[in-house]
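Entry 12.
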Amino acid sequence: MIVELGHFALVLALFAALAQCALPLAGAARGSEPWMAVGPPAAAAQAACLAIAFAALVHAYVTSDFSVLAVAQNSHSLKPLVYKVAGTWGNHEGSMLLWVLVLALFGAAVALFGRRLPASFRARVLGVQGAVGAGFLLFILLTSNPFARLLPPPPDGNGLNPLLQDPALALHPPFLYLGYVGFSVAFAFAIAALLEGRVDAAWARWVRPWSLAAWCFLTIGIALGSWWAYYELGWGGWWYWDPVENASFLPWLAGTALIHSAVVVEKRDALKGWTVFLAIVAFSLSLLGTFLVRSGVLTSVHAFATDPERGVFILVLLAIAIGGSLALFAWRGPQLAGGGVFQPISREGGLLLNNLLMTTGAAVVLLGTLYPLLVDALGAGKVSVGAPFFEATFVPLMGPMIAAMAIGPHLSWKRADLAGAFARMRLAGVAMIAALAATLVLQDKLSIGAVAGMGLAAWLAGGTLADLVERARLFREPLASSLSRIGRMPRAAFGMTLAHLGLAVAIVGMTGASAWKIESIQSMAPGDTVEVGGYAFTLVGAGEVRGPNYLALRGTFEVRDKAGRVVAVLAPERRDYPVEQRQTTEAALQATWLRDLYAVIGEPTQGGAFVTRFYVHPFVAWIWAGCVMMAGGGFVSLSDRRHRLGAPAARRRDTAIEAAR
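Predicted 3D structure (tokens):
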């Protein structure tokens, strides 16, 4: 009964989405207030119906209702409860239901918090949100029904993919979808602006918090996925440039550019057409990621489905959404000429350079991701584009961008003095020279990449802190006065500082883990010792252990430093899931701020030995610490009162726009 209720709620959600799409858009075009007024209640109704449907599906997983096909294929009665719940979105059908639920919740949030928007503009935004929701609800009901029955039901289920039975990956998809789908609000604002033919400071003030929220969630989602891949897959890396990894990175890059570009629209009434274009691109790249994961064109641990028919349906949705929006932009975009004039050396110029480098980097990643697929589709053979390509093309673009990020906050609007900006960055220069010298002295062998990475990280951190010092007038006024200035600073400024420092911290981690990683692969018998990076790994023993729904081979390794002291006892596992008939590698690691000790045990060999892998990763924990800082900086900025207020009321709109100029 509950399953049928969920299915019925899903159908009702489709009708609510159609009403949310058709009536508000038609009402805005005709100037009909009653029709426009349908948008908010329709958005709330769609969100409520999808919440009921999702709750019904969660209930089916928790109660192990194997008469539901998706539950039988992706769950098992012996699976721990947390993974029964996570199994709801650990498959194609359930994850799509979560996708449209998040979309509907964002639409309901716009309806709730967008009451200060002009009625016609809010109607158009909600109409676009409803159109996207209706398209994906049709996709779910016609090709991916999560409530499809399986009769007669099997006595038990097939179980969830063991790779997905992990706390980090249980949280990874929800955060990722909050990011992916969150950019739909910026997309809807862009389409509404194109339909009305107007983009101004108030529009940018509304787009920024929604885009920033989506960016924060996407940052957390990507970080969780990277962390999971690092310790779960047993290959010792944190980023593989997998096409599906790239699919999540692309909207992050476009979203980062969008956030910075919207600042220029709000402060200087410039880059309006470019900002609208970025809002369209950010969500379009999110839709592209959805297609890659679910179309069957990729074989990846991240892929949900391999059904080409579903891929064709999503491809049609992409063609309508992306092609239609870009056609509208080509038609109406030229009318959005910016009014603010600025010199190349200015705050606007720095943000524009940031945008150009960021979007060029996104284009490089997009080309490297899609090129092998296009070559294969044309029957021209198999082509592999891996890490060497991206490291040779994308990474060099980010160097100038990071260097410019440190300078940007020190530039004034409209026209700036570059020499004066560099003079205010003496702290950054000292930090960079110290980092370069320390890297050259301490590293065993010369690595230009390591020197450049550490230097850029120090330059960015120093420049960011120098901006804070300048704002507070530290060392130029009494301490009490400086502290008072810091207390009066807007939270958005603190958020920017924290986010930029987070990127500097992450660069330290990426540089250390890439340039100085030490790896050793060998066969070991109990009692054998291997020296890796100044540490002695000794295999104490190995034996079988039983988990809740798996059997495991667990090895015990004792790790000693150069002085002979035991610094860690690591117990990696090789797990066998009998229901799913799959094996996983569970790495063991000891993490500190300076390095990770990482151990993996593999298949037994003849003579009672085991294949083992050891890694020493310097600074790798800084990667995820930096990601947390970046997301935290975004959330601090969102707490700024100016972001919470959003656009001014309609009767004060013109006055606010003139003041912003």
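Annotation: Residues 518-621 form one domain. The longest helix spans residues 201-232.
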